[in-house]
Amino acid sequence: MTKKVFAMFASGAEISGTGFSNVYTKLLAELFSKFFAAMKYGGSNQGLMYQFASEFSDSGGQVIGIYPSWVVKEGIVADFSSAIEVDDLAERKVEIVKDVDAILCLPGGVGTLDELFTFMAQVHVGELGRSIPIFFYDYNGYYRPLELMFQVMAQSKALQANMFSLHFLETYESFEVTLRCLFGDDVN
Question: Residue 76: its pLDDT value, please?
Answer without folding.
Answer: 66
